[in-house]
Amino acid sequence: MERDGGGCASARGMAILAVAGTVLVTLTIIGRASGGVALLPLDIIVGVLACTLLPLLLRWPIAAAVALALLAAVSPAATPPSNIATLHIARSRPVALAVGAGLFGLAAHAVQGLLHPTPGLSYGWWLVLVLVTHAALVAWGAFTRARRALLESLRERARRAEEEQAQRVAAARAHERTLIAREMHDVLAHRLSLVAASAGALEYRPDAPPEQLAKVAGVVRAGVHQALEELREVIGVLRADGTDPTADAPQPTLTDLPALLDESRAAGVVLDVDNWVTDPSSTPEGTGRSAYRIIQEGLTNARKHAPGRPVHVQVDGGPGDGLLIDIRNLLPDQPPNSPPGSGTGLVGLAERAQLAGGRLGHGVTPDGEFRLHAALPWPG
Length: 380
Hints:
single chain, rod-shaped, Heat Shock Protein 90, 10 helices, five-stranded mixed β-sheet, about 10% strand, alpha+beta
């Protein structure tokens, strides 16, 4: 489409130049006739041929320019079309071709000055006038071509900048959605695993005392309620446009660890906790948030893959020493029928730890324990 538009513009411009050239040829012929020049028939024939050749500049610019220059050497009636051809080549072709066309036109008009000298003007000044004219035509055409190329380059840069900006915005949105999806996995998987563990206790112990059944049912009800609240918060983040600073709820950090441990104990998990961090509130926000999510995911995996087995959680560290997290649990002899999951929890934790400037590892120890350990930065 751009090429067609450029062709239409060139055609319109050439039509205007053809009309202008015809007018100039007519005026030249009239001027020479009024001066008593006897070669009027030759001027008319050359002028008609020159006007006929002007439209050919669109398809064969070099050949048409050469033909017009040869006609200009025979008669001054072809001078306006020849100059138009030189200007057209300078505007549409490289500088080397433009200079060549200008020199050829200069040579043709030098011959014209010998064949048809201008009264009252010496041949030397004629050459100077012709040289200045063709130099101006080549310079003007080259400047116009360079300006057009610059404008096209600026438009292309603006278009690319808009496309790159759109790509950056799309990448930022995709990254943010990935973070939100990971957060949803961490939060809801933990909460729903608590509900699943409590519901399993109701299923396998229907003969339990009513007080215990009521307590477990209360844990299930509270867990489902909290899961719905957290899901509502995540959906609120997805819907928010980022302009309301109060739209994002504060994320849990290491100071919220006791509540997390109490929830797991209420669901029947046997926990052995060694928390040597004396002041959790002094933990950097990013480190504390990552530590909370790592411990939350570790407890979730322990409930899913080793139900009923005790879990040992150790947290240690301080300013300048970093924060160390170690979670261990014995693996069962037979893998349980765990609730379905995406299988990307540990991958997300590793990415979270890496983004925080730390590292995370996991695997089975020689003692048959599954170990999840992480080291996070804690600047001094």
